[in-house]
Structure formats: structure tokens, C-alpha cells
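sry for the spam today, last one i promise. C-alpha cells for design, 209 residues
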């Protein structure tokens, strides 16, 4: 069923991966931007953290099996209408909760907490051109990072903002280059990679797979 939260989020993950993979490859293989590839480690971790969202609407066995791969235990799963809740103990034994709200075909919003403290806020919206999304994460040491994403076909923009408060919710009417308002951002357009590094250095080169 293409209208499930699972199908919606999986389609977004695939579209994002189609842009992120060549972008990371290009940045990582260019001597001037090799360090920039590290900025994306958090985005990769976000995919892991939100793995249960790919199984929203598919029942507890699917969610439990996915989380078991990450070393999680005591998984419970419930769905009520378009609201999904997953609780589990992570690989370090910390109590984790993910709450997801799905607006069919339009958006998925996920809020996560560990040991009772909210530390994740993630949103994905379907737009006229593709997708916009953001992932806000507070690490154990209290550092907060916000990743913003816009995907338009095989093109896309990723923004990285460090040490920021919980962002305002997206509306779904953001432009295809909204993440460029971040201090650090990278974009793939056709075979051209552009961006602004964390040090404020402008980037522009052709990506050759």
C-alpha cells in the first residue's frame, strides 16, 4: 500500500540516498573537501535512529526485527489512527521512545526521547518538486545539530547547523534550496557539486563517479 507511513518514509529515504551517495562520494574524493564528508556522518546516523519509521504501519514483529539489528530489547509498538509509538531499550540499556505522526501522502513527523529527555525531532514533507526534511538531534554531551534536506529528483541540498535550538516546524512549502540558508551546506545539481564549508569556504566542482 503506497499510502502507508512505511511506504512514504521508505520512498523519501530512497530519494535522499540517490542524492546523498554521489554527494558524499564527490566530497570525499576531492582533496579540498575531504573533511566536509564528515559533516554527513550525523545524517547517516539519523537514518539508523529513524529506522523504525520505515516499519510504521507494518506491525510489531517488523519493528522488533528491525530494532533487534541495532541491539535493542524490550520492543513495544502501538498504532492508533495515524499515530505510531515505539518503545525499546537501546544497546546501552537506555529507555527510548519514538512517536510518529503521519499525514497520509503529505508528511511524517517523529519525536524521540531517551531516558525521558526529548533528543530528536524529525520531519519529512512531500512537496511539488520532491521532498523537504529536517533532523534535529541532541547528543549525550548536550551538543545539538540540525540537518536540513531538500530533494528534487536526482538533485538536492543538505544544510548543517551546529549548536542550535529546536527548529520551527517545516510547512512543506519550503523552496528546493532552503537548506542554503545554513552556514554550512552542500548541493548536487546534475553533475555539479557546490557548497559552503563549515570554515566559510565556497565549493564548486564537477562530480565524476
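last one done:
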Amino acid at each position: 500500500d503506497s499510502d502507508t507511513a512505511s511506504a512514504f518514509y521508505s520512498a523519501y529515504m530512497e530519494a535522499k540516498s540517490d542524492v546523498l551517495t554521489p554527494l558524499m562520494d564527490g566530497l570525499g574524493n576531492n582533496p579540498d573537501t575531504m573533511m566536509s564528508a564528515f559533516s554527513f556522518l550525523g545524517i547517516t546516523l539519523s537514518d539508523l535512529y529513524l529506522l523504525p519509521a520505515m516499519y510504521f504501519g507494518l506491525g510489531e514483529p517488523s519493528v522488533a526485527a528491525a530494532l533487534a539489528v541495532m541491539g535493542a530489547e524490550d520492543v513495544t509498538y502501538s498504532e492508533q489512527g495515524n499515530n505510531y509509538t515505539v518503545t525499546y531499550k537501546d544497546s546501552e540499556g537506555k529507555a527510548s521512545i519514538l512517536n510518529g505522526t503521519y499525514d497520509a501522502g503529505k508528511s511524517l513527523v517523529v519525536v524521540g526521547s531517551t531516558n525521558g529527555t526529548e533528543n530528536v525531532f524529525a520531519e519529512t514533507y512531500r512537496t511539488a518538486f520532491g521532498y523537504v526534511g529536517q533532523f534535529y538531534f541532541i547528543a549525550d554531551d548536550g551538543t545539538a545539530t540540525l540537518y536540513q534536506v531538500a530533494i528534487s529528483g536526482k538533485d538536492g541540498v543538505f544544510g548543517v547547523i551546529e549548536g542550535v535550538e529546536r527548529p520551527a516546524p517545516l510547512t512543506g512549502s519550503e523552496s528546493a534550496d532552503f537548506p542554503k540558508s545554513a552556514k554550512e551546506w552542500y548541493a548536487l545539481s546534475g553533475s555539479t557539486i557546490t557548497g559552503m564549508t563549515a570554515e566559510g569556504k565556497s565549493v564548486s566542482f564537477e562530480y565524476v563517479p
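The first strand starts at residue 73 and ends at 80. ok im logging off now
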